[in-house]
Design brief:
The complex is a heterotrimer.
Chain A lengths: L3 H5 L8 H8 L6 E3 L24 E8 L2 E8 L10 H24 L10 E6 L9 H18 L5 E5 L8 H7 L3 E4 L10 H8 L9 H8 L1 H7 L4 E2 L4 H12 L3 H6 L6 H17 L4 H7 L6 H4 L3 H7 L6
Helix pairs in contact in A: 3-4, 7-8
Chain B lengths: L5 E7 L5 E2 L4 E5 L5 E8 L6 E7 L5 H15 L1 E2 L1 E8 L3 H16 L7
Parallel strand pairs in B: 2-6, 5-7
Antiparallel strand pairs in B: 1-5, 3-4, 4-7
Chain C lengths: L8 H12 L15 H8 L5 E4 L5 E2 L1 H8 L9 E4 L6 H8 L3 E6 L6 H10 L3 E5 L2 H8 L7 E9 L5 E2 L7 H9 L4 E9 L15 E4 L5 E2 L12 H18 L3 E4 L3 H16 L9 E3 L7 H5 L5 E3 L8 H5 L17 H10 L3 E5 L2 E3 L4 E2 L12 H4 L11 H9 L4 H4 L8 E5 L3 E2 L3 E2 L1 E2 L4 H7 L16 E3 L4 E3 L5 H11 L5 H4 L3 H9 L3 E2 L21 H7 L14
Parallel strand pairs in C: 1-3, 1-6, 3-4, 4-5, 6-8, 8-9, 11-12, 11-14, 12-13, 14-17, 15-20, 17-21
Antiparallel strand pairs in C: 2-10, 6-7, 15-16, 18-19, 21-22, 22-23
Helix pairs in contact in C: 3-4, 8-9, 17-19
Classes of the chains: A alpha/beta, B alpha/beta, C alpha/beta.
């Protein structure tokens, strides 16, 4: 693997899970949990004659940004689409739990522990959700992750990073939506039902999954930024994701809570307003929504560079 | 390895083997057509042991030739290697293993 | 009593046919689209030779649908002469018995269906051609009686604007009309005045505005994100060991990721080797999006194109010093002329293939797919009629050892014909084989010959990840085979190499490994590419390149 300094300029889109995990925290601070040499791999895949990976497609560990302990979870889309099975799911659950336990321990020892030393969780998503080869275990892991995320509410901030090839879909789309802050790049995609599944269920007229431009302007980073599903758009480099993450984590927990999409009566009301808007607007395409948000020539935003886009794009207000 | 996966074991010795520097090293991702390599420094009287786990069958002789060539070119010894493969072609196998060995041989410690 | 000889049967017949269609016209040469089927039923006779325009890019798909909807009781046993059969409707026409015989050049996605229909007797094959070869026969023994073509714009007088995607249209229209045939055009738009007259109205008998724009396949777009490290390595080898070595300035690139990698290495590795201005100045080439960085970096002087490429129109129009742009400001492609340029005026053809046999013959056919040839063989061969001289042509000719066996001491040049292929494709499918699958196809589909894309006697170089085989330098077939074995890696062909023999060939410079070429393998990775994604290409073009939806990932 490239050195940490070289990793910073690496495309986040092309980076492996381990590169993202190592590069997102400060140089030389990353320690991996259950790494390849621990050989904790899926017991199900060999039975089906499927290739295994010793980290089960998920890199977990802990590092630091400044004085802050950062618990990192990073999914590898190249291994079975980044799908979550029994082992990768358990690694995810346990890592969040460790962050929560550490928080408890540190704060009980020192109740006035400065914000800058309190632990946080960063999840780099690249997944279509449940691994179908081990579906029950995978589904259970999703529920347990949700449980851990709830447990961290108001105590340990959880940041989602989405900018890898596979995007973040299926059950993991729900998981990402339940975290505090979502950072995407314009190459990131976030959704629940994947494009191919929508096409399969509803037909090509409803959603043409081979029309990648349609897929991206419906699930991609720019759209999610305009409609508020994602909080920040980063450039496509590990450095940009790290810097954005660092900036977010400098904010106090109360402020980070305000970035959430769900989780309070107020947030639910905002979401209901959005549902009302979608009923009255009847958008045929995301461009209708962009226009409604105040973007006069929405198509022109699609091919803009990130800086131009951030300077010009108007975001939806519920 | 239980189940349906093919497990292969090889032992090679190159002419002037040099020890790797890193005590252990991991390289690669088990993507489609790709593989991961795990290297562990291990006293083997200069030899190299390789264990391959792969869903592919019927190419055991090709594995042997490719691995033998890479080890002989790399001139390394005293290292135990594990490979988890998912349909990698010989060119990818040779490329990844050579890259992994080259990193493990270099004194420059990489990030993990 | 001697009967007076009739010399204008064709034009009389054409007049009769057109008269039968009279009432279907709404205005001068305009026929409403709902009359499409009736028009074809009026002017086509059973057993006619019909051209249906369509190649590996644009398709007269509306007229194809109309033909497929004709009554097979009235219209049947047609002899189709057409560049390509890539759409399902092309085969439906045979399934319904409307057509019987086929002469074509390129099978594309329907290649398996063509083989199946041949076996089942639903389709009788004339021959598989190259594009230029088929065009030649339009002016010899395969002139169409009726041609169904397509254009962007048409007017009431039949003038057509085919613009960026002119492609095969002029050849078809000229061959048909000048033997008194009937030319029917589907157009995307009926206009008062066409942007530019690409086909004069006199050559066109009927114009139909199609309900949908004609289908266009972005066949030449390669997403840089899918280029592998191995392809980068082989691209570096080709640039240093062939482009640089021979100073290749006039060339064609085949379709594929190997040549896409080379295009994206020009502004990086090419500059590092100091090759700008020395190689890659003139191309017969479709407007490959992956050429944008090299064009922007000042490598290229001219590109003439066989066809347009979806999304590249604005970019090409904004670079009139490079592309062939009309007085109206839009590009005109022309397959016949570009293929001619590719055959006579290039010094190198380089492209990928599927299989290479132990002698060096290569083919993209598999046992169950009649893939056809397209244009590659016209460029992937030595143009025997060529007489003009360039340095790289002379250099390769001087190296060509076996030439003396037929020419004595008479010097002659030779085109570089280069095949690039990894020794194994996905799933351990070897690229080097004892016998090509094309032999099995010939048996399965009752072909007279195994379809060979490039014959060994034309091939001068093979590039694999193992090395470059300089075949032109070899003495005799045995030595060529040894050189091929020397770069065939761990395939059965490669494993049969004698290491001593390969070593001798390396010493003689007939086989060169990346190390022999002085290429550091550890540098061969995607970071060498001037663009790593389609978005990079868009940014590099200053927003002029508008990629098709399927290539957009932002």
């Amino acid at each position: 693997m490239a050195k940490w300094t070289e990793l910073q300029d690496k495309s986040f889109l092309e980076a492996t899970a381990r590169e993202r995990a190592v590069g997102i925290v400060d140089e030389g601070t990353f320690t991996e949990f259950c790494g390849p040499f621990d050989k904790i791999y899926s017991p199900h895949l060999p039975l089906m004659g499927e290739a295994i990976e010793y980290d089960d497609g998920l890199v977990a560990g802990v590092g630091k940004i400044g004085k802050k302990p950062i618990f990192v979870i990073s999914q590898e889309g190249r291994f079975i689409g980044g799908s979550i099975g029994e082992v990768s799911g358990a690694k995810m659950v346990k890592t969040i739990q460790l962050a929560s336990d550490l928080y408890e321990e540190m704060v009980s020892e020192k109740p006035d522990l400065p914000e800058e030393m309190r632990p946080a969780v960063v999840i780099s998503f690249e997944t279509g959700g449940v691994r179908l080869h081990e579906a029950n275990a995978g589904l259970l892991a999703h529920a347990e992750v949700m449980d851990q995320i709830q447990n961290c509410r108001g105590r340990v901030p959880i940041i989602s990073l989405i900018g890898s090839r596979v995007g973040c879909f299926g059950g993991m789309g729900f998981v990402a939506a339940a975290t505090d802050v979502i950072i995407m790049s314009q190459f990131g995609r976030l959704g629940l039902t994947g494009p191919e599944v929508i096409e399969q269920e509803m037909g090509k007229d409803e959603f043409d999954a081979s029309d990648r431009a349609l897929v991206y302007r419906t699930t991609g980073g720019k759209h999610k930024y305009i409609i508020g599903d994602c909080n920040y758009l980063a450039a496509d480099s590990i450095r940009s994701f790290r810097e954005t993450t660092t900036a977010v984590l400098q904010k106090p927990m109360e402020e980070i809570e305000t970035f959430r999409r769900i989780g309070s009566m107020e947030k639910i009301k905002e979401q209901i307003e959005l549902v009302k808007l979608s009923v009255s607007l009847k958008p045929k395409d995301s461009m209708d929504v962009w226009a409604h948000a105040g973007n006069e020539n929405p198509e022109s935003l699609i091919n803009m560079t990130l800086d131009e886009f951030l300077a010009q794009a108007k975001r939806l207000k519920a | 390895m239980e189940g349906m996966l093919n497990e292969l074991n090889f032992k090679f010795k190159s002419e002037n083997p040099v020890d790797v520097v890193l005590p252990k090293h991991h390289y690669g991702v088990v993507g489609s057509g790709d593989l991961e390599v795990l290297l562990k420094k291990h006293e083997l009287e200069g030899a190299v042991e390789i264990r391959v786990v792969s869903p592919v069958r019927g190419f055991d002789h090709v594995w042997e030739k490719v691995l033998e060539k890479v080890i002989s070119d790399a001139e390394v010894g005293n290292v135990a290697i594990e490979i988890n493969d998912n349909n990698a072609t010989p060119v990818v196998v040779a490329l990844r293993l050579a890259q992994a060995l080259s990193e493990a041989k270099s004194a420059e410690q990489s990030v993990n | 009593m001697q009967k007076e000889k009739v010399w204008d049967k064709l034009s009389t017949d054409t007049e009769e046919r057109m008269n039968a269609a009279n009432e279907l016209f709404s205005d001068r040469k305009v026929v409403p689209s709902q009359n499409g089927v009736a028009l074809l039923e009026a002017v086509i006779r059973a057993g006619d030779r019909i051209n249906l325009e369509g190649n590996n890019q644009k398709q007269a798909d509306f007229l194809a649908e109309c033909l497929g909807s004709c009554d097979s009781e009235k219209i049947n046993n047609l002899h189709m002469v057409q560049s390509a059969v890539p759409l399902p409707i092309h085969l439906d026409i045979f399934d319904k018995g409307i057509a019987k015989k086929l002469d074509f050049a390129y099978g594309g996605p329907m290649a398996a269906k063509v083989a199946e229909f041949l076996r089942e007797g639903k389709l009788e094959l004339g021959a598989i051609h190259t594009y230029l070869e088929l065009f030649a026969r339009y002016f010899m023994d395969l002139t169409p009686r009726v041609s169904l073509i397509c254009a962007y714009e048409g007017d009431k007088d039949g003038n057509l604007y085919t613009g960026f995607n002119t492609e095969d249209t002029p050849v078809i229209a000229e061959a048909t009309k000048f033997r008194q045939g009937i030319v029917i055009a589907q157009v995307n738009k009926l206009v008062d005045k066409v942007q530019r007259v690409d086909i004069p109205g006199e050559w066109v008998d009927a114009v139909i505005e199609s309900p949908k724009p004609f289908y266009l396949e972005p066949l030449f777009t390669r997403d840089p994100a899918n280029i592998t490290d191995t392809q980068v390595l082989m691209g570096m080898m080709a640039l240093k060991g062939i482009y640089g070595e021979y100073g290749v300035q006039r060339l064609n690139h085949g379709i594929g990721f190997f040549t896409a990698a080379i295009e994206l290495l020009l502004p990086t590795y090419g500059n590092e080797l100091g090759l700008k201005g020395k190689i890659c100045k003139h191309f017969a080439l479709n407007p490959h999006p992956t050429m944008i960085p090299a064009i922007e970096d000042g490598w290229v002087e001219s590109i003439h194109s066989f066809g347009g490429e979806l999304g590249m129109q604005k970019y090409c129009e904004a670079r009139p010093d490079i592309f062939f742009i009309g007085p109206d400001g839009s590009m005109r492609s022309n397959r016949a002329y570009s293929q001619t340029a590719g055959h006579y005026a290039t010094d190198m053809f380089i492209g990928g293939t599927l299989q290479i046999d132990k002698y060096g013959n290569s083919s993209t056919a598999t046992a169950s797919r009649v893939a056809g040839f397209g244009g590659a063989p016209n460029m992937g061969c030595d143009a025997k009629g060529r007489r003009h001289v360039t340095d790289s042509w002379l250099k390769c000719g001087a190296e060509f050892e076996d030439q003396a066996a037929l020419l004595g001491d008479m010097p002659r040049g030779k085109r570089l014909v280069v095949q690039m292929q990894e020794t194994f494709k996905e799933k351990m499918d070897p690229s080097f084989v004892e016998k090509l699958d094309a032999w099995n196809l010939a048996k399965n589909a009752n072909l007279d010959l195994a379809p060979v894309m490039i014959y060994s006697d034309d091939l001068t170089h093979i590039v694999t990840e193992e090395g470059i085989a300089y075949l032109a330098k070899c003495r005799g077939l045995e030595e060529r085979m040894a050189a091929i074995r020397g770069v065939a890696g761990y395939t059965e062909v490669g494993l049969s190499a004698d290491p001593k023999e390969t070593k001798t060939l390396r010493e003689r410079g007939i086989v060169k490994t990346p190390e022999d070429l002085g290429i550091d393998r550890s540098r061969a990775n995607r970071s060498m590419l001037a663009a790593k994604s389609v978005k990079d290409l868009v940014d590099c073009s200053g927003g002029l390149y508008e990629p098709p939806a399927r290539f957009v990932n932002w």
